[in-house]
Design brief:
Helices cover 29% and strands 25% of the residues. Strands 1, 4, 11, 12, 13, 16 and 17 form a seven-stranded antiparallel β-sheet that branches. The protein has a six-stranded mixed β-sheet with strand order 7-8-9-14-15-18, with helices on both faces. The chain starts with a strand and ends with a helix. The protein has 355 residues and is of the alpha+beta class. It contains nine helices and 18 strands.
């Protein structure tokens, strides 16, 4: 089975192909779950066990996953389910019982109205940026649901940053942000950093790179460096752009329990460098990147092949999330950010009146 190491949300993105998508978005249409077929399930479990052994980021855990799957298969645990969704859910729960991973799960095939099998999740890049504008005098606001790393979103983001480059405060709302790639980050960071700055590091399992090439694009902001045996290590850097007042602006990142994956990469990058204050809740905890593996019969699994981590501690955030600098309930995070920006009044009203 082939692991497709491309950004999940675009067919041909001009940005890094690191795929980090954890929390499901609303499907573009409501598909019907495919029926369960025992022979298909047996084939899928065998393929998944093999794929994990070959590619999962931690080889020792990969062996434990594979052993469990094969044992359950031999014992007949995957013989009968109400539908393909129930089967996929059981397999995903079994994997999590061995070792929880914020990205790893089995995705069932679904049927569209014409009876054709479709991917179980479809994400809409047009919803990447939810709202943006002046939320108060001197205070710019932008909200995200995902980083699709497509040119249309990048263009919208550049326009926003240019139109609000004189802001004294920038609020980046990632409370509903559930993942994506590096593209949008590399649009934002040049406005915020005055000097080249290392953000986070990424370790990819070397066997994956030897067999299929790197899941991380060769671009100036991602630099290869020496790493331990068994992995290929890279660092993600912020590269300064043109000088604007945003370099001196206060920056707040709003987080929630749903802030996941690439949004966590983004949040940690700004937190550990001291460039932003995180306000809200501890994030979801999905820190291992990878891509979709086609397992046959319409089934697929997101297989993490690498991990992202803090250069200072060597620790990632998978399973634990990223703690905010200022802990408040998610629905109070914007109020707190505006208060710290010196703005009085109701945040909901300010958001409704966004210019």
């Amino acid at each position: 089975m082939r692991l497709s190491l491309t950004l999940l949300l675009t067919a041909a993105a001009p940005f890094p192909s690191v795929a980090q998508t954890a929390v499901p978005a609303t499907p573009l249409q409501a598909p019907v779950v495919a029926p369960f077929v025992k022979a298909e399930a047996e084939s899928v479990v065998s393929a998944l066990a093999k794929q994990l052994e070959e590619d999962y980021v931690f080889p020792d855990i990969a062996k434990r996953y594979a052993t469990m799957l094969r044992s359950n298969l031999a014992a007949g645990k995957y013989s009968s389910f109400a539908d393909a969704g129930a089967f996929a859910k059981q397999v995903s729960e079994d994997l999590a019982a061995v070792h929880p991973d914020g990205h790893l799960d089995l995705k069932p095939p679904r049927l569209d109205k014409g009876g054709e099998r479709r991917p179980s999740r479809s994400l809409d890049p047009s919803k990447a940026i939810t709202r943006s504008g002046w939320i108060a005098p001197g205070v710019a606001y932008i909200g995200f649901e995902l980083f699709p790393s497509d040119e249309a979103t990048a263009a919208r983001l550049r326009t926003f940053l240019e139109q609000h480059k004189d802001a004294k405060t920038l609020i980046l709302d990632a409370r509903a942000h559930h993942g994506g790639g590096l593209g949008e980050m590399d649009v934002i960071f040049p406005y915020l950093f005055a000097t080249p700055t290392e953000l986070v590091r990424m370790d990819t399992r070397v066997s994956v790179e030897q067999r299929m090439g790197s899941p991380v694009a060769d671009i100036p902001t991602v630099r290869k460096m020496d790493g331990p045996e068994g992995v290929v290590r890279r660092a993600h850097w912020a590269t300064p752009g043109a000088v604007t007042p945003l370099r001196e602006a206060k920056v707040f990142v709003l987080t929630s329990k749903k802030t996941a994956s690439a949004a966590e990469h983004f949040a940690l990058s700004l937190k550990r460098t001291g460039r932003a204050t995180l306000i809200g809740e501890t994030t979801y905890g999905a820190g291992n990147y990878g891509g979709l593996a086609d397992l046959g019969h319409g089934y697929s699994a997101f297989i993490p092949v690498g991990r992202t981590f803090d250069p200072d501690t060597g620790e990632g955030w998978d399973g634990v999330g990223i703690k905010p600098d200022v802990a408040v309930a998610a629905d109070e995070a914007l109020d707190e950010a505006l208060k710290r920006a010196g703005v009085s009044g109701d945040a909901k009203l300010a958001l409704a009146n966004l210019r």
